[in-house]
Amino acid sequence: MGNLVNFRDLGGIPTTDDRIVQEKRILRAGQLVNLSDEEKEKLISEFDLVNIVDFRGVKEVTSAPDDEFDSVSYTHLDVLAETEKNSANFDDMQNILTVERVDELMMQLYTQLLEDSVSQKGYQEFLELLVAQKEGATLFHCFAGKDRTGIGAMLFLKLLGVSDELVIADYLKTNESRREANEALIVRAREEEISEEHAQALLRALSVDVRYLKHVMTLISDQYESFENYAAQKLNFGQRQVDLLKELYLKKQ
């Protein structure tokens, strides 16, 4: 998709009860900035895009606003609104100097996305928006489409009944989908004569690691026993809404 990095349709992923996610209903990506006319047209005509959900922070949105689309709704949900330094935007990523520190901060970030009340409110509004969207596709994203977007995808897919293995498989697609974009960012960083250790840390920060997602999956399992319980207790998204989500986004194989 050219300038639209880390883009994919979550449609076609099977659930444990032999249904599949509907195609052209739920899309994920990195930021929608400087897209070509062809990319915009494809999102509208081929994927029936009707709504965009932007998980980025105010600073990110102000400095690089999403491209405008005719007749497409836009919703900004800053899931890290109360964190001044969150390691999820590119400016903060560039300031992390070692791979070990990246891993430490990512574990903290993913925990916060799960446990912080502002993050919970953002993901609650995201899920409520999805059950209100009866037709067409919603595209949700952050800067790189990997962490804030990754948690959103995990919650959506797990509530539909997708296995851990397939949720993780979708999550790890980011490393291949962002490969070219990440390499370009590393080249630019090296032009500023950063150390090789710093370059490797930046590359790590721009990638995903299975340990990050498994960490929050384990937290939910240990503390809430199920994603449904977590959604009901922390996102005010109960079984009736989960059932509606399944009705709207699943189909028989």
From TrEMBL:
One GO MF annotation is: phosphoprotein phosphatase activity
- PROSITE patterns on file: TYR_PHOSPHATASE_1 (PS00383), TYR_PHOSPHATASE_2 (PS50056)
Domain Tyrosine specific protein phosphatases per the UniProt entry, residue ranges: 124-179
Task: Kindly give the Pfam families that the UniProt entry links to this protein.
Answer: Y_phosphatase3
- Similarity comment text for this entry: Belongs to the protein-tyrosine phosphatase family.
From the Swiss-Prot or TrEMBL record, give the protein name: Tyrosine-protein phosphatase
